[in-house]
Amino acid sequence: MNWTKVCKKDMMIRDTGLCVKGANGEHIAVFWEGATDQLFAISNQCPFANASVLSRGLLAEFSGKLTVASPVYKQHFNLETGECLEDENVTLKTYRVRENDGMVEVMA
Q: Which domains does the chain show, CATH number per domain?
């Protein structure tokens, strides 16, 4: 696996997501959490709605975990682990993500 440049960090807006295309064509939701200045990357595909929409979800702390809520059915996904807080049998793919010289890069 290699690091793939997906966007300039200054193209992102704090506390929101952005859908990017990984090296293998998969849709990845990248989030910039403003309070900690951390980047997170998960699959953009909501398994409950079967739609590529998670980058449009709302970031929130839920049950002590930083999550994104699906904009369709409102399930919460842990941004670090991909685990669905409402259904422990569902886990999204997570990706390593970093900032490198002003670029956001995802290992995919």
A: 3-107 (2.102.10.10)
pLDDT band at 24 (very low <50, low <70, confident <90, very high): confident
Q: In angstroms, how far is CA 17 from the centroid of its own chain?
A: 7
Taking only the tens place, the pLDDT of each residue in 61-98 is 988 899 999 999 999 999 999 999 999 999 999 999 99
CA–CA gap between residue 45 and residue 16 (Å, rounded): 16
| 40's tokens | 């997170």
Phi/psi of residue 54, each to 5°?
Answer: -65, -25
What is the pTM for the complete model shown?
0.94
Alpha-carbon distances, residue 49 vs 18, 23, 58, 66 (angstroms): 18, 24, 16, 21
